[in-house]
Specification:
The protein is α/β, with parallel strands linked by helices. About 45% of the residues lie in helices and about 25% in strands.
């Protein structure tokens, strides 16, 4: 009888997901399977290696010594497969194949969409797949090689080791305050004053929300009263206007929507800046179609920078 391969890619991905969450319930939900199915798969792995991979103290799940060994081996296998995939891709054409791009969902993507549209027209044999994603999804995609390129805001203090990645700056953006007070006239405002008003903003785990929290702590400002939260800047913008509620949005977004905005736009004093960067794994830079795509994106921004592109696209509408 043919023996079933216990160490399948699926089984190892289940194991890695459980390690990440340390919760059978959460891991099963993310994987889209039932908890008993996940439990059964882990038990099969444990039976195959002859030792438990996890143990519990109360309701808390921990990796056993065997689990740590299995985790190290699984990551090594994953790295080998990623390198093999990249080496195979390196012999491919610069103008043929698929490029997967992850874009942070809170980014104003007008300029990125314009470039991708032009690139696809000039290079029809390259299929570009763009995904609007959360920060966690983007880093997971870069890590497991399902994303070739990511565009997101930095800095990101959660990433301690950048040795596997390359990045280049697209634009230094600025966070602007949209003041719902009809009597607001000043060109600038202190964060401590702005946070006394009602806000609509991003969810608490989103980058710009965290930027505001950090700045508030540094400037001794209170937390705003958040009346609603959305994941996309366009949703926040529409809610703020319709309900006369204040908010914060990147300057790049406001440049694309200035004629639609009846609220008073104010700079923070001092200003709150952050970068929009293009990020990719170092080994991706040697894949012809990805290197060519990024070179063309840089050329596109060299001809006109991000702000000039955004303004021109908006004026042409």
């Amino acid at each position: 009888m043919k023996r079933k391969n216990i160490f399948s890619a699926k089984a190892l991905s289940y194991f890695l997901q459980l390690v990440e969450t340390m919760s059978y319930t959460q891991a099963a939900k993310i994987l889209g399977i039932s908890q008993p199915a996940l439990t059964q798969q882990i038990k099969r792995l444990e039976k195959a290696i002859g030792a438990p991979l996890f143990y519990s103290t109360g309701k808390t799940l921990h990796l056993s010594d065997a689990g740590y060994t299995m985790l190290d081996a699984t990551r090594q296998v994953k790295d080998i497969l990623n390198r093999a995939q990249n080496e195979i891709q390196q012999i491919s054409s610069a103008t043929y194949g698929v490029i997967n791009v992850g874009i942070l969902s809170s980014i104003e993507d007008t300029v990125i969409t314009d470039f991708v549209t032009r690139y696809a027209h000039e290079h029809p044999d390259v299929r570009i797949q763009c995904y609007m994603m959360s920060r966690k999804e983007i880093w997971a995609g870069l890590d497991d090689n399902t994303l070739d390129i990511a565009i997101l805001y930095l800095p990101d203090n959660r990433i301690k080791d950048w040795r596997a990645y390359e990045k280049w700056r697209i634009i230094t953006d600025e966070l602007m305050f949209l003041n719902a007070d009809p009597h607001a006239m000043a060109a600038s405002i202190k964060l401590a004053t702005a946070t006394t008003m009602d806000w609509v903003s991003y969810p608490g785990n989103y980058y710009i929300h965290q930027v505001i929290n950090t700045a508030s702590e540094q400037r001794m400002a209170t937390e705003p009263n958040y009346v609603a939260s959305f994941t996309r800047p366009s949703q926040i913008f529409r809610f703020a206007i319709s309900n006369r509620v204040s908010t914060v949005l990147p300057k790049s977004f406001l440049l694309a929507h200035d004629q639609e905005n009846p609220l008073t736009v104010q700079r923070f004093t001092p200003a709150i800046h952050f970068d929009m960067d293009c990020i990719y794994r170092k080994d991706k830079g040697s894949i012809p179609r990805i290197a060519f795509f990024m070179d063309k994106f840089k050329e596109y921004l060299d001809e006109k920078d991000y702000t000039e592109r955004l303004t021109a696209i908006h004026q042409a509408r």
